[in-house]
Amino acid sequence: CMSLHPNAVLVASGQRASQGHRLTANVQVWDSRTLRTLHVLGEGELGVGILALDFSTRNNGDYLLAVDADREHLLSVWAWTKGGIFGRVATHQDHVWGAAFHPLDNNLIVTHGRGLLSVWSRRKDGIFTRTDLFKDLLPRNILSIAYTRHGDLITGDTDGLITVWSVDADGEYFIRKQFKGHDGGVSTLYLLSEGTLLSGGDKDRRVAAWDCDEDFDPILETQLPEASGGVRSVTPQRPGMNDANIYVGTIKNMILEGSLQRRFNQVVFGHSRQLWGLTINPRDGSVATAGYDKQIVCWMHNRLMWRIQAQSECVSITIHPSGSVLAVGTIDGH
Question: Could you tell me which residue ranges the EML-like first beta-propeller domain spans (predicted)?
């Protein structure tokens, strides 16, 4: 998992523990321009891996939360520049898929996942209290969350429902609006600066825009090409600019560029299944790869030069010393 700092330069990334060695997982905060590691957090404290990370937004990213992958899914809150934990709580026994700070209150954190959606409030003494939003409702699997500019929580679930949660005068959460956003899971939600909500579907390959200021009325939608796969993530090309240009990451490891008014162009291709073969051309330094997605791809300086599709999964690849002939072996012996 990764989280981008509010300054859009620093990144926090979380790893799994090394094989057979618990408590070797850690969180690293690094500079995206220089790739220099600035801080390493949680060594000897975090369990088998990190499930979720998020920088706070209210205090310019001074806090960082992490949820580990142990049985109790411990939630830790760090003053990361000082390397110290000032809050920790066991969250859920079941699968946690994500966690995030509330954008208007650093003491509120939401965790979501399989059949769970909870709000954690941190008191001054460091103790967390928990509010389950599905307490009197049928639990659902929450894939994605976002917040409106007024602090309402928006969730997307595996049934394609988008739900808006508000807080009443007594501090109780209630469903303000719920509507069908996608056929299949709502894999990502992103609120643009002008108040437009973008949602992406992992099954229907649709990207849709909703007007938060007009009771989430639909604005526009588009569908990605079938070869691209479903939507995994959406982000604007230039955050804060209302030019409608966005990047879309797909479940087939591609990045597309475009907008809902025009078609999307592929800017990054990636293999979508296990990658088994790699060879380097001694003549020009180009690289060829092949894998279980049946794609044979040639790269030059990180750019895709060409790709072709084999008839079955590829497990090996090599190039002749002359650099002119490529041989690929497939899983069925060809």
Answer: 1-258
Tally of domains within the chain: 2
Are 253 and 295 within one domain?
Answer: no
Name the CA dihedral angle for 314, 320, 326, 328, rounded to a multiple of 10 degrees: -20
pTM beyond 0.70, yes or no: yes
Give the chain's end-to-end CA distance (angstroms, integer). 38
Three-state SS at 159: coil
Chain length of the chain: 334
Clarify whether residues 15 and 158 are in a common domain.
Answer: yes
- Reference 280, options 300, 307, 295; nearest CA is 300
Domain shared by 231 and 296, yes or no? no
Q: Are residues 123 and 251 in the same domain?
A: yes
d(C-alpha 293, C-alpha 310), whole Å: 9
Query: Strands, E, within 103-205: which ranges?
Result: 105-113, 116-122, 128-132, 142-147, 153-157, 161-167, 173-180, 186-191, 196-201
Same domain flag for 151 and 231: yes
Q: What strands lie across the sheet with 186-191, from one edge to the other?
A: 186-191, 196-201, 206-211, 217-223
pLDDT averages per 10-residue partition of the chain, 334 residues: 94 88 86 96 85 92 92 89 84 85 93 94 85 88 95 96 93 93 96 92 95 93 93 89 87 93 90 95 95 96 92 97 95 96
